[in-house]
Amino acid sequence: MFIAPFFTLCALAFPAFSVPVATTTTSSVSPATFLNLGSTSYTLQLPIGTGGVAKELAGTSLASYSSDYFYVNKTGVTLYTPNTGVTTSGSLHPRTELKHNTNWKSSSSTFKNMTVSLQVDAVAPGKSVVISQILSFSNGPQFMVHAYEIGKIVIRAPSGTKTLDANYKIGSALVLNFSASSNVLSVTYKNLVSGATSSQTFAMTAYSDNYYKAGSYCQIVVGDAGYCQVTVSSLSVTTV
């Protein structure tokens, strides 16, 4: 597999269409250890599998796992999603994505938070990659943050779509924070390269089985050109 090199968090990255240069990692730390994922907190969903079933890893299997799809690189943990990826049940698109395993209630007065720092390294031509989500186990996607190859980041919500960054450059480091309490979701965004910021607030449906996800959920199907790749430098979820 060919992966583009990464620069410092505040550097501009290669264009999405450039030919990547082979990169390897010499880190002795596993991705799960690097991100401090804990022993039971997350499930990794992968774009590989057998019999049309995408592979998932959790617990001790995730703790030591590293592959071409999920590995430590210079600025964090790289999540690579090819256009040949196997999809999870109910989806047409492949993903290399971390799912937080604890469900929570929208109506709870205790804040349920996710903060993720990452950079979008590549997006398939004309497509987008979902870099973070809130889903309801029984009702599906509720909030999805898309980074588009054309250089735009938006959040899609049941009430409509809001732009977080109209001039995102592929490779720029960013920080996203979700904070949910009493059926209200607050989302803050900061581009660490350009300095662009955005804050959005949304009403939430009172579901009792929400959960957070972050990674590289590539909005491509088999046969599309290109791939998606995201490097996560930190990920934190608090639900209690």
Automatic annotation (TrEMBL):
Pfam annotation, one family: Alginate_lyase2
Keyword Endoplasmic reticulum attributed: no
Domain Alginate lyase: residue ranges: 40-238
Gene Ontology MF terms in the entry: carbohydrate binding
InterPro entries assigned: Alginate_lyase_2, ConA-like_dom_sf
Keyword annotations of the record: Lectin, Signal
Name of the molecule in the record: Concanavalin A-like lectin/glucanase
Organism the protein comes from: Rhizoclosmatium globosum
